[in-house]
Amino acid sequence: MKRAALYCRVSTHDQDTQNQLRALHEHAARAGWSTVGEYTDNAVSGTRERRPGLDALMDDARRRKFDLIAVAALDRLGRNLRHLVTLLDELQHLDIGLVSLREALDLTSPIGRAMFALVGVLAEVERGWIVERTHAGLRRARAQGKRLGRPQAVSDPSRLRRLLANGTSYRAAARLLEVSEGTIRLAVQRDPTLRDSADDDLTGSGCVENPPP
């Protein structure tokens, strides 16, 4: 008799897992499985990376406490297609089956394994699309003359020197020069003349120029 773990998830507080659990228990009885554990996540969005119920389920899967996992639907299990494929791949390496009622998916069957291979192909296509969209966005930004990321160095040290000499704080100077406060501090550490102009006790009130909105 196969040992089955049941996993359920609902996204909001006004939902509960009882309907999912009932359907899973009924299926387990018809299939002749022995239900050895129930794992639930209540009011937890599927997009969240950490889910206590799912984390406990996978921990017990790695300990081989059951032979298969049953879910009401695949979207109850994976955050997205990529996450789902990662989970399915680990389950296959652990030799643990997966059954999803809505999709009629059974990874312990030859057809189920073929469906898993198809899901893997789709996930690879999705990864390619994401990379291409990212690269296209970067190319478009560069073509429009946009600066990507914050500058790593102060382009106008003389202006920074004047700002610090007039009592401008590191934070305000960073806003005016459109760099990070850490970049300002690094410039001061490297340039003794800037260090002489700086007042480390300033907290952000002093500024001789109006920062951009």
Short synopsis of the structure:
The protein has helices at 18-31, 52-62, 81-93, 110-143, 157-165, 170-177, 181-190, 192-197; strands at 3-9, 34-41, 68-71, 97-100, 105-106. With 213 residues, it is of the alpha/beta class. It folds into 2 domains: 3-124, Rossmann fold (3-Layer(aba) Sandwich), CATH 3.40.50.1390; 150-208, no CATH class.
Structural commentary:
The relative contact order is 0.09. This protein folds into two domains: 3-124, 3-Layer(aba) Sandwich (Rossmann fold); 150-208, no CATH class. The chain has helices at 18-31, 52-62, 81-93, 110-143, 157-165, 170-177, 181-190, 192-197, and strands at residues 3-9, 34-41, 68-71, 97-100, 105-106. Strands 2-1-3-4-5 form a five-stranded mixed sheet, with helices on both faces. With 213 residues, the chain is of the alpha/beta class. β1 (3-9), α1 and β2 (34-41) form a beta-alpha-beta unit. The termini are far apart. Mean pLDDT is 80; it is low at 199-213. The protein contains eight helices and five strands. Helices cover 49% and strands 12% of the residues.
